Amino acid sequence: MAGHSKWANIKHRKGRQDEKRQKIFSKLIRELTVASKLGGPEPTDNPRLRLALDKALGANMPKDTIERAIARGSGDQETDNLEETIYEGYGPNGVAIIVETLTDNKNRTVAEVRHAFSKYGGSLGTDGSVAYLFTKVGQIVVQNTDEEKIFDISVSNGAEEIEKGDESNLIISAEVEEFHNLKNILEEKDINIIEYELIMKAANSVELDDEASEKVIKLLESLEDLDDVQNVHSNAEFSLGSFT
User: Fold this and answer.
1) Residue spans per domain, the chain
2) What class has domain 83-132+204-243?
3) Beta strand segments in 68-203, E
């Protein structure tokens, strides 16, 4: 076994985002629209919209595209009756997986999600079958330029856990309510933020060898490629050998 890393899981997600720009734009537009519809068009009053906006800007989405998506959600325009639906299941080696979707056709979406699970050695579960293993948290990955300074700032401003990613970064977890404030303070203190997002964090992880890592990655990528899927979370801890 080639060693394991929580950073490997993050690198997997980041790499997939970089690969498929147009599909990411489509997913971000949906998220901007629904976030605006549910919480209003003002990012300062709507944490979900603020995060979606940050992601859209980070992906270099044109400003007019962002504004149209927000206006579509907050105005009287038809929003395709998008519904948030969460699916739960298991992948190879008992890896627990949560799939977050935005869909205008739940029958189509569940069929596609079930097919992806079946094709790559997993199984779609019932509601609640794996959700109890996860907690929604804010996760901030920062460059480890001064570990003591970062630790002090983070703990003083709501961080619940700080883990080493690889030799050059730290992974900071915070409650959802503290997430944006902590991010802003880290930026103000000139801490380089590599990425940040809301995730479903697992209480316990499943360590995988190279072969199992490749199988689970294929399943996760298949799910991520579905048009209706917004986010995929798992408790897999990948072998570093699967990324070489």
Assistant:
1) 6-74, 83-132+204-243, 134-202
2) alpha beta
3) 83-90, 96-103, 123-124, 134-143, 159-164, 169-174, 193-202
